[in-house]
Amino acid sequence: MRNKWCTVPILFFALVGLPALALAECPALPGDVNGDGSADVLDVQCTIVSVLFTQSPTLEPSLVECLGGASNLAASDLSCSGETNVVDVLLSLTFALEQSLNPEVDGDGNGCPDECELPPLGPTDLGAPEPLYTLEDVQPDSAGYLTSYGLGDVEGVTVVVLLASW
After folding, report:
1. What average pLDDT does range 105-124 have in this prediction?
2. At 121, phi and psi to the nearest 5?
3. Which of the listed residues 21, 24, 112, 162 has the most CB atoms within 10 Å of its CB?
């Protein structure tokens, strides 16, 4: 049932010629496996040849020259599954026909398969923004009563301890 979205809609839209839905931005142009700046029938053909090449290692490596050589087979892994297979061919067709992806594949509807998207950075991940530690001064006798203090208010200090008690 998972791939039911691939056959009927693609044939229907290809034959009827309804306007395509716009795809959201993705880190790379979705479906452009040969790097020519568009997702089209050449990319579909290249993806098919890539699948055949991965299934038959005895084939001539020049068959995947459309990818820039056999060392670039990952470019045709449109599903980000770690291998090039028929799912990638179906995705290539979908991108070439400028159709939106099935919500089972692209839950957020941004035009990029969810498996290809990096999860958002957590607070402890390398490259995550620094946390904004702030605390409101609730001591009525304090000079800074009802103001907030945090790392942005302190210069030249590497360790800040914010304590609170009630």
Report:
1. 82
2. -70, 135
3. 112
CB 11: neighbour CB atoms within 10 A?
A: 12
Tokens 């090449």 belong to residue? 53
Burial class (CB in 10 A: 0-12, 13-18, 19+), 101: buried
- Amino acid 129 reads P
Residue 9 and residue 93 in contact, taking contact as beta carbons nearer than 8 Å: no
Return the SS3 of 150: strand
Separation CA 54–CA 16 (nearest Å)? 34
pLDDT in tens, 13-49: 333 333 333 333 354 688 898 888 999 999 999 999 8
C-alpha closest to that of 33 among 45, 23, 25:
45
Any idea where the domains of the chain sit in the sequence? Answer: 4-116, 122-166
Which ranges constitute the DSSP H helices of 20-143? 41-55, 86-96
Tokens linked to 51? 């699948």
Euclidean distance between CA atoms 128 and 126, whole angstroms? 6
Residues with Cβ within 8 Å of 36's Cβ and at least 6 positions away in sequence, in order, are: 42
Return the DSSP state at 121: P
